[in-house]
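Handout, section B. The chain below has 481 residues.
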Amino acid sequence: MYLGIDLGTSSVKAVLADADGKIVDSQSAEYPVFYPKEGWSEQRPEDWYNGMIIILQTLGRRNELSKIEGVSFCGQMHGLVLLDENDTVIRPALLWNDNRTIEEVRFLNEKVGREKRIDWTGNIALTGFTAPKVLWVKQNEPENFARIKKIMLPKDYLVYKMSGVFASDVSDNSGTLYFDTKNKIWSSSMLKILGISETQLPKVFESYHVVGNVSKTFATLTGLNPGAKVIAGGGDQAVGAVGTGTVRKDMLSISLGSSGVVFASADAFMGDAQGRLHSFCHATGGYHMMGVILSAAAALKWWVEDILKETDFDKVLAEIDINTIDQTLFLPYLMGERSPINDPAAKGVFYGLNLMYGRSSMTKAVIEGVSFALKDCYDVILKAGIKPSIARVIGGGAKSEEWLQILSDILGIELRTINTTDGGAMGALMLAMVGCGRFKTVDEAADMVVTEVDSYQPDMQRHQRYSEKFKEYKALYYLCR
């Protein structure tokens, strides 16, 4: 059997699969997020570890975990975990959604320079990335900075506790901003600016490589086989893309979760000179471009639950007429925006209202606005030379036929759903299977495990009309700045 561990922001989940990749059991454990100040977001790494122990012990009461051949990981990206010389956690981890580093980001982008950021790492600085967090600790907690012996990402802490090996992977480190993504090495220029050295950083592997074995201590605690292989795993978006089968050149996946992601796989490094999208290493051994919008299903949830005071999403979405395209526009920047405008001060907007339009029109405007934001990212991907023929869609929004049809019409591309909505855990399982030799490559694992379910074809007449409306959407953002 194989085990995939998905370390998220709200919970850690373990998924157990048989030799064919069929899920046989799963278990999760929640833990808190702490907000000590406005814009701050932290967690205790010890809570992740204790949660992992609890779920494995629980699974062990229902399954023979000694049969597990390999374990791999999917992890929340960009978090900063610091250990001292005794391997004690120095301070709570700063998470991906922590925004305390505005001044550090301004320093990296403006004082050091965006062009250097892109040249050294392939990306510009954002508050979510790890390097600005390192700078913040250096400048605001010098006593903690002086104690740092090991710097790692969230999932790497679990790998270390399970195997005793200080290891990481290329996909997760692509989001640190001190990793040279194109060449898959640490950026010496960035390390110098941050005041850290390679001795404080883990050895870096491809996501499907074996880093070690389950330690005897961890095996005693959980019932795992001490000979079981520990595979590096990767960042949540790259591993989630593996779980959708988005593994080959020009393949595209879209996630309609609370946030939204447009993910394009590539064989070679595909940088954006303006830094509008993320250019990262893929968990396959290749590369990818990725656009992230901050409010996708979260925008719809806000509209349906907070504004309409409804709980039945299907009922509200059934009111939409997909054939009618009116003048109502919605900017979904409810928490600022990341890709491609990278504007934390951007605001949400309804525009073009009149007495003819009711709540169904505004509901559709929300769906269209989120879809336009995804198209904004998709267009940058097309300009980079990536040419997808279809896109696979996952996430809660993928359950809505209305949303999928509108998104297909706006993008002008066929959309397909697949046999799982849990791409992260499935991707981790597939990496474990590749690491153990069950499949030769990640591509082969995707072909065997992932299957498509439904298809949505774009209506090209509506696509043309949406192309004109998209121009108005783009102009509205600049009008409202």
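Note. The chain is about 40% helix and 20% strand. Compare this with the example in section A.
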